[in-house]
Specification:
Length: 405
């Protein structure tokens, strides 16, 4: 039997755009229509209306924390015009969490922007700092009394990569220069937001909050143990996993390290060129691992590897996302168990880990993939919006209740 620390935080996550529905002032809402996506977010899970029901379910599953995001486009639907109704809604959501004994972990930016901000060039705009910090100030002023944990930006590396380099997501840029510029902007904005949030807490005579980012980390594993594969895996780990963390850590703008982990990348270089080192992967299924419904390999060892790699920062770690999309619920429970074993192994190595958050509480709108990937502990019927608690959720609930696996 495996035992976890007594004050361990257990829960699941949602992101506003993926579950709320009706985020009509968002850049994604406009882009879905423009790109004519087959599956558009629409009503999503109607979590904006049904949040009390969903949080009752989270409580019934013995969660003691919940990660959620604030939809900036609801708070500021037009530039400089803030919605008191939206601010009050999120204040009530936070109170609903507190009433149920769920610690809120609040994310301020989870991939989506107000449409007006996007029309001004978003993170490439010279005034991006001003716009984002103004929004942060409004939200933190309203929620500070009931929030201890803040995540400024969700997966800045994924956002820059998919929106500004690969061009899969709005604004569909394909520019190394712009993606690098956006990453630099997000680094700078996190540091400023970190200091702003702490200043607001100080002015309110509140205990200092805990602030971080949610950093997507992959296990970069050499497919064959050749020199160039090992070197490329090391360089990608340093750049993709740790580059953002290194910069904000140097500015003392991290209270813990938020980790999102899903899968590995098998590194197999075809040559010694810069492009080979940056992007070559194995295109064959050499390792015969089980996969999720989007074809990502399931590799729990990778979570242990990335956790051990960040011990050198000597900061607490919080696993803010770890989950699987699958129609096979037995595989979901196996995924959770095996990844929790990796978490325990990292704990035994001396790493301080604050908690584990499964992605996600609900099936949801999985961005450009639509509604077919099923990540939820709770299934959603998108015709009736009926919630169904899966068996994996009930088994995970026992871990949350007892702290034992």
């Amino acid at each position: 039997m495996i035992e976890f620390p007594k004050r361990f935080l257990w829960g699941a996550a949602t992101s506003a755009y993926q579950v709320e529905g009706g985020n009509v002032y968002s850049d994604w809402w406009e882009w879905e229509k423009r790109a004519n996506l087959k599956n558009q977010s629409g009503a999503a899970c109607r979590h904006y209306d049904f949040y009390n029901q969903d949080l009752d379910l989270a409580k019934s599953l013995h969660h003691n924390c919940h990660r959620l995001s604030i939809e900036w486009s609801r708070i500021e639907p037009q530039e400089g015009k803030f919605s008191s109704e939206a601010l009050e809604h999120y204040r009530l959501v936070i109170l609903a969490l507190k009433e149920r004994g769920l610690e809120p972990i609040v994310t301020l930016h989870h991939f989506t922007n107000p449409a007006w901000f996007a029309s001004l060039g978003a993170w490439c705009n010279k005034d991006a700092d001003k716009y984002f910090l103004r929004y942060v100030s409004k939200v933190v002023e309203v929620l500070a009394n009931n929030v201890r944990f803040w995540v400024t930006i969700n997966e800045p590396n994924v956002y820059a990569y998919f929106s500004y380099l690969l061009g899969f997501w709005p604004p569909q840029e394909k520019s190394l220069i712009k993606s690098t510029r956006v990453m630099n902007t997000l680094e700078r904005i996190h540091i400023k937001a970190y200091r702003l949030i702490r200043q607001i807490y100080k002015e309110k005579n509140l205990m200092p909050p805990k602030i971080s980012v949610a950093q997507n980390m992959q296990a970069f594993v050499p497919c064959r143990l050749s020199l160039r594969n090992k070197l490329a895996a090391y360089l990608r780990h340093k750049s993709y996993n740790l580059g953002f963390i290194d910069k904000i850590f140097r500015h003392k703008a991290l209270d813990f390290i938020g980790v999102n982990y899903y899968s590995p990348t098998w590194v197999e270089l075809k040559g010694w060129g810069i492009k080979n080192f940056a992007s070559d992967v194995c295109e064959k299924d050499h390792h015969h691992l089980k996969k999720n419904s989007m074809g990502w390999d399931i590799y729990p060892q990778g979570l242990y590897d990335v956790l051990i790699s960040i011990k050198r920062y000597k900061l607490p770690v919080f696993i803010l996302e770890n989950g699987i999309c699958t129609e096979d619920d037995a595989l979901r429970w196996e995924f959770i168990q095996e990844h929790l074993k990796s978490v325990n192994k990292a704990l035994l190595s001396g790493l301080e880990i604050m908690g584990f958050i499964y992605w996600s509480l609900l099936d949801n709108f999985e961005w450009d993939k639509g509604f077919s990937p099923r990540f939820g502990l709770i299934g959603i019927d998108y015709n009736t919006f009926q919630r169904t608690v899966r068996e994996s959720a009930k088994k995970f609930a026992q871990v949350c209740l007892t702290g034992k696996l």
